[in-house]
Amino acid sequence: MISWRKHYRQTLIAISLLLSTSASIYGQDGDPKNGEKLFKANCTACHALDKQVVGPALKGVVARLDTEQGLGKDWLHKWIKNNKELRASGDKYANEVFEKFNKTEMQVFPNLTDKDIDDILAYTTNPPAPEPAKTDDAKNTANAGSANVAPQSSTTTNVVIISLLAIAGLLVWILLKLRQLVKLGQSEDLAGLNETRVKSFREIYEKYHYIGKGLIAILALLAAYGVWNWIMWIGVYKGYKPEQPIYFSHKIHAGEQKIDCQLCHSSAKYGKVSEIPSMNVCMNCHRTISEYNAEHYMEPGKDKAFYDGEIQKIYAATGWDSEKQQYTGKTQPVEWTRIHNMPDFVYFNHAQHVVAGEQAIINSFNKKNPNNKIDVVCKACHGKIDTMNVVQMANDFTMGWCIECHRTTEVDMNNGYNKEYFKNLHDKLKKQYPKDGGKITVDAIGGLECGKCHY
Fold this sequence. Notes:
By secondary structure, the chain is mainly alpha-helical. It has helices at residues 2-25, 32-42, 61-69, 73-88, 92-100, 114-125, 134-185, 188-196, 201-207, 209-232, 250-256, 261-264, 267-270, 279-286, 304-318, 350-356, 358-368, 378-382, 399-408, 416-421, 426-432, 435-438, 450-453, and strands at 320-321, 326-327.
């Protein structure tokens, strides 16, 4: 009996040692929750837990490295902190990994402490279960509420309809009774007077032809004005927002993620036209972002599957194989629907407004709209694009709209270019345009000349 207890105790001690050793080897001595934060901040650009991105999938990497290569966590510490140094030392496996993944250099992380790396490895070994989305409870509550309200709403609607029908029947009955009373009270003199009343349109026109002609003239003028007003608004599409072949939310990219407009529309600053970005620009980010993870923001009526499907459209357009992490060479052109399109007879240069007129336009807009200020010059014409899920034409873009802007936008005569270019014209312009204490607007320097915009 004693020997059995002794054997049992030794077995428990061995199991405990084995478990503690395994936990130490496979990354359980770190904090997975903190590791998740560090992983998302430092690793998600190139790695995912469950699939290869730029680098390999990292779930269970500690155990996999130990089983396949006989390497421990100390090797991972060296690799993460400075993989270049590890490769330069002649480490065989470090150079094999470098060759296997197309010689793509991994970023070095000297800022991560040993504890930080242990936390990250603990996360890759045993990632914590995702917290249930709060929006689900809200949706369930809303659905339950709507289910309770539905019968009440239906009953109320029925009561209203019945009441209206009853009121309508009562009104018809009253009208019939009034008609009977009128017939009973009509005298013989009144009947004779009715026979002498005018009963044809011709008689009315002959009697009141001057008034009739005047009314016809007024109606003709109103009709002409209506036709003219309709013609003037041909080609004005304020509020136009067509559906695009690939859904792209500026609110997510420019608003939530704070991506600068000119990162994608690079030619807007130094070119005449702000071009539609190439799909390769999208792939700068979406090569490593293959699924939508910003579940805190989703447009009503859309779910994660919808956004993931749109990312797959980008891959199909560029010929990107996300599994093999390489281009197939089979591309599909995207037929975007153009929203802003100036007529062929109008010249507009983005660079002139984005570079030369940037601060002047921003200052003028904020002065005229103190409760709706902008921080980027693009918003003066295109509206607050960072709040739009679907881009729409925010302004009229008519000739009158442009002229009004030129008449009210003050030119910065103190910047280097204007100060030198208009050196001999400053005094003359101030005398010629004395309004607002000698402030000079765009129209004073040729902003209303026909040849500036038409050729």
